[in-house]
Amino acid sequence: MDYRRFGNTIVARFDRGEEITAQLRALCEKENIRLASVEALGATDEFTVGVYNVDEKQYHALTFTGAHEIVSLTGTVNTMNGEYYSHLHMSAANESGAVVGGHLNAARVSATCEMVIRVIDGAVDRFKDGVTGLNLFKF
Q1: Which of 46, 76, 93, 98 is the most exposed place for a label (fewest CB within 10 A)?
Q2: How far apart are CA 51 and CA 131, in angstroms?
Q3: How far apart are CA 105 and CA 84, in angstroms?
């Protein structure tokens, strides 16, 4: 990973073999980021995404392998109980153009991942919502 900071914007490159969510966490902890929006694109050869079932209050995850282009990776970074927390979604297309996606659990970079992080001046924590089972923004 390498990155440069330009005021409240960070432009990052994650490299082949790196895991995107782990690298994002490392970058945010190094830069002490408490609130930000994230967007990225790139390529992955293994990733896991999930879809949340509200009635069951759990994610159902699927893992995909093989060449995929990350057509969209978007989300937020903030805190929960004062600690790093990210909420990311990703869509990726295979060699035939079929797109899959969902809540991003993990993704390994196959070529590169270009990410832009917009740091927001402030802090928003999260709380566990008893109705949905999700960790929601706490204002």
Answers
A1: 98
A2: 17
A3: 15
Q: Which of 88, 119, 115, 85 is nearest to 18 (CA)?
A: 115
d(C-alpha 135, C-alpha 122), whole Å: 19
Looking at residue 18, its amino acid is: E
Tokens found for residue 95? 């060699």
pLDDT tens digit string along 118-138?
999 999 999 999 999 999 999
Task: State how far the Cα of 113 lies from the Cα of 115, in Å rounded to an integer.
Answer: 6
Amino acid at 49: V
Quote the CA–CA distance of 106 and 41 in Å, as a whole number.
14
pTM above 0.90, yes or no: yes
Unique residue bearing structure tokens 């706490």: 138
